[in-house]
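Bug #77: duplicate submission created two jobs. Keeping one. Sequence:
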Amino acid sequence: MSEFAEPRIRRLVADYLGVSADDLTPEVSLTDDLAADSLDLMELALVLEGEFGIEVPERAIDEVRTYGDLVATAAALTRGRQARETSLASAPSTIRSRVVATMLDNGAGLERAGALTPYTAEEIADDALRAGRGARLEVTVPAATTDAGVDWVRDQFAWLAERGVQVSVGREHDRPPSAGQQPPAAA
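Kept job's structure:
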């Protein structure tokens, strides 16, 4: 997000909250100083989504306290969107995932394979969350996937670490054999 976007955010917030743009300093509290409630913050998030073409997760809004936090969050989400658009071209078309509930499961777990769509990513994340804290999500991408593509897939599931799920992403040839599998024979 360029420095030119901050005035747009300032105008949107001032208009929506009915305050002077001069009141919007980085340290001003949206809730304490400007009397915005949680509904106001969610509606501001929707306004920002429409203005900048971003998706503002509820957990991001929950962490916003000041006008400066709001600008920083919008900037980070915009940079993330731009990075996703840039790296989307290098994203793998198919993946394989395995969710192992605990380290004691000897590698047994729920597996999925197929095209990596937003729906598939959500299903995989739901599988991992259902497995609970301490679960492990292993995602394998085709060997020809670029580093940017691997990073993109890793970014799709990185938030699961906050929920106690270990996430690893690697290429087909990078993966160690699962329990009971033999490594491929040398050619």
